[in-house]
Amino acid sequence: MNILTLFDIDNTLIQSSAGHRQAYTEAVKEVYDLEVDINVINHHGMTDQEILLKVLIRKIFLLGDTPKDMKAGKAVGATTIGVTTGIFSDEQLEPAGADIVFSNLADTDSILKFIL
How many Å apart are CA 75 and CA 42, to the nearest integer? Predict the structure, then answer.
C-alpha cells in the first residue's frame, strides 16, 4: 500500500521550506509517478491538497470544438485548445476561452509543442 505523507511547506510553521519542498516533490513522484515543481505557484498558506491541485491543474489540457468545451475547460482551470473540425470557427472559440485554436488535429507536432 502506498502512503503519501504531506508536509507543511509554506513557511507558516517552519523557517525554511527548501527540504520540505523537495520531500513533497519526491513524494508526489513516488506515489503518483508525476514530476511536479511546486515553485510554479505561490503556495504560501495553502494546504497540501490545494498545492497538489494547483500544480496538477497547470498540466490539464482540454481539446474541444465547441464554445461550451472551452468554457468547461476554463471552469476547471485547464488550458483550452480549440479545434475547428466542427461547426464553430476560431472567431467563436477564442472568445469562449480557447487559449489556442487549430484547424484540425493533423498538425500533431504543433499541438504537442504547445502542450509540452
Answer: 20
Q: Give the closest residue to 34 by CA, choosing from 55, 19, 8, 54.
A: 55
Read off the C-alpha cell for 44: 504560501
Is the pTM above the cut of 0.70?
no
Domain of residue 99: give its range: 61-115
Query: What tens digit of pLDDT does each residue of 42-85 get?
Result: 777 777 778 777 777 667 888 999 999 999 988 877 889 999 99
Residues 96 and 110 in one domain: yes
Which of 65, 63, 66, 41 has its CA nearest to residue 51? 41
C-alpha cell at 106: 493533423
Residue whose grid cell is 467563436: 92
Which amino acid, one-letter code, is at 40?
V
Q: Across the chain, where does the E strand assignment appear?
A: 61-64, 79-83, 100-102
> Could you give the residue ranges of the DSSP H alpha helices within 9-87?
18-32, 48-57, 67-75
